[in-house]
Amino acid sequence: MTAADPAPRRGRGRPGYDQAAVLRTAVELFNRKGYDATSIGDLAKELGVTKPAIYHHVTSKEDLLRLALDDALDELTAVVGGAVEDAGSAGAYERLRGVVRRSVEVLVAHQPAVTLLLRVRGNTPVEVEALERRRWLDDRLAALVRAAVAEGALRNDIPAELVSRLLFGMVNSLAEWYRAEGTYDAAAVADALTQLAFDGLARR
Amino acid sequence: MTAADPAPRRGRGRPGYDQAAVLRTAVELFNRKGYDATSIGDLAKELGVTKPAIYHHVTSKEDLLRLALDDALDELTAVVGGAVEDAGSAGAYERLRGVVRRSVEVLVAHQPAVTLLLRVRGNTPVEVEALERRRWLDDRLAALVRAAVAEGALRNDIPAELVSRLLFGMVNSLAEWYRAEGTYDAAAVADALTQLAFDGLARR
Fold it and tell me: For site-directed labelling of A122, which of A27, B11, B66, B96 has its Cα 20 to 30 A away?
């Protein structure tokens, strides 16, 4: 299911792992076992270090969760925020198409963190905050779909809310099935997805 | 995030919960906290009964997982197996369209169990077996997509493997966003999804 871990990255002058490597392994464990079932002890064991060595880099398990979710959310917020701000310079259809393509690229480049984000259930304050940021994104995306329908660029016989859910449901599904080591790179998947989706959404 | 639980069903003559009610609550907990993080003790606490009362109905936590995954897999296998067996009576396109529609209906009717199935990672023998059954389904669906492309009913400028992933990725995404108490029933979602997907997949 998971490829072999890459060799651990060494911190500058300090033997062992740097924060990025600890975080990478934590996210992999969270995705494999579930966040609630993973302890700092599990993480230390996976890395072959002591628990204090982990606490040298992070203050808590929730700290690791926040770092990972922020990684995914900051990238997605930049993509969606950019499309909202560009409202003057391009039509809603072009902006939506750009958001879909760039979302695929973010998902592929940050797949473990986005996978974790998509599984968040709101069991902790960090998760509740992440769900609020996801809702902000979903609302902006739904508004962009409505604007594209309103400007006559998308079919109007399917409710815009369902279009938004199905379109980004298809994008988000990549977190579960995309394999970086497989046949198709991010550009190939982005091409296929945007062609299928926007041909399906074309006004007829 | 989750609606209030329905009133517990009473077993015949025995006070407390029957197996179906125990299973329903177990699946809800597995989806909320993750399977690995949920104990029989958590389940007993959630139901307000003792652990022995749980063991009256099931032998283990893994037993509950197997029952839930079999529920989802048996339904999906019936849908996909039926389409494969119908090969003589209808074209691949019509069978694929039927499978997509019926998959949406199964997902809506068995949403908690399908959600659990889609999150399985293979950490236990029961999960490994479920992943094997899922792979069988995925292979049959991919073959059906290839057959529909080969008969000239679907566009052939997107690799059939990607079409299959994107199409069923969109279907599976319902597990995450569909709300039974929302505006759209299973038929409305199935209509929207099949129209969007098959218009997008039409040969041009």
Answer: B66
Q: Domain containing A5: what range? A: 1-58
CB A177 within 8 A of CB B169: yes
B36 and B71 in a single domain? The answer is no
Same domain flag for B75 and B37: no
How high is the ipTM of this complex? 0.88
Whole-angstrom distance, CA of residue A53 vs CA of residue A22 = 10
Split into its structural domains, chain B has a count of 2
In a domain, B130, yes or no: yes
Residues A125-156: pLDDT tens digits? 999 999 999 999 999 999 999 999 999 999 99
CATH code of residue A178: 1.10.357.10
CA distance A13 to chain B (A): 37
Nearest to A69 by CA among A144, A17, A122: A122
Same domain, A99 and A7: no
Residues in chain A closer than 8 A to B176 (CB atoms)? 118, 169, 172
Of B119, B161, B195, the CB nearest to A158: B195
Residue A69 contacts by C-beta under 8 Å, 6 or more apart in sequence?
A113, A116, A117, A120, A126, A127, A130
Distance CA B130, CA A204 (A): 41
Q: For residue A44, what is the domain's CATH number?
A: 1.10.10.60
- In A, minimum Cα distance to B191 occurs at A158
B36 and A36 within 8 Å at the Cβ level: the answer is yes
Residue B120, amino acid: V
Domain annotation covers residue B1: no
Same domain, A49 and A10: yes
B31: which chain A residues are within 8 Å (Cβ-Cβ)?
Answer: 121
Of B34, B35, B166, the CB nearest to A196: B166
Q: Is B95 inside a domain boundary?
A: yes
Q: Which amino acid is at A90?
A: A
Query: B158 and A1 in contact by Cβ < 8 A?
Result: no
pLDDT digit string, tens, across residues A50-102: 999 999 999 999 999 999 999 999 999 999 999 888 777 889 999 999 999 99
